What we know:
The chain has about 200 residues and is α/β, with parallel strands linked by helices.
Amino acid sequence: MKTQVKYDIFSKFYDLVEEYMEEKSFSKWRKIVWERVPPGSKVLEIGVGTGKNIPYYPNDVEIEGIDFSQGMLERAISRSTKYPDKKIKLMRMDVSNMSFPESSFDFVIATFVFCTVPDPVLGFKETIRVLKPHGKAIFLEHMRSNKWIYNIPLYMINPVIKTLTGTSVIRKTKENILNSGFKILEEKNLFSDIVKLLICEKI
Length: 203
C-alpha cells in the first residue's frame, strides 16, 4: 500500500495517537520553529498534515502549506478555519514534485516530515529549488542516533511503524540534507540526537 494511502486512512486517528507527545514535547518544539520566521516572509510548509503547526503560524507572514494525503489535508483545512487572521493557503501536492516556480519562498518549514517522504533526497532537492537564493529551511526531524544503544529500540519498532504508516525512524536525515546540497547553519539536539532542529541555507 502506498504511503499516501496509508496516511489517508491514518488521518482519522493521527491526532489522537500523538496527543500525549504533542502536549508533552512536540508543541514546544513547534513553537521554537515558528519563532525563527521573521515578519513579512513568504513561507512554504511541507507536509502540513492535520495542521498542527497552524496555531503557531505568525499572523504577519504569508504561508502556503502542502501535503500529499487528502485525508490529512482535509483536517488541516478544517483547523485553519479557526484562525481567520492568518494568511494560509493549503493544497494537495507532493514534495518530490512541486508545481511552484523556482525561487518562490523565503523560508521552507518541515516538522517530522522527511521520515516519511519515499525519496527524501529528491524531496530536499525540490525544497532547495523552490527557495529563493540564500533562502532558509527549518527542519524539525527525528532520525537515527549516533549512539548505538539508542538505536536498539528504534530498530525494534521501525518495521511496525514502516508497515503501518510508511514512516522510518532510522533514517540518516542529517546526511540526506547535506547530500541534497543544503548548508547547515545551525543544529540543535532537542531529544538526545534523535530529534533535531536543523536550520539550513540554499547555497
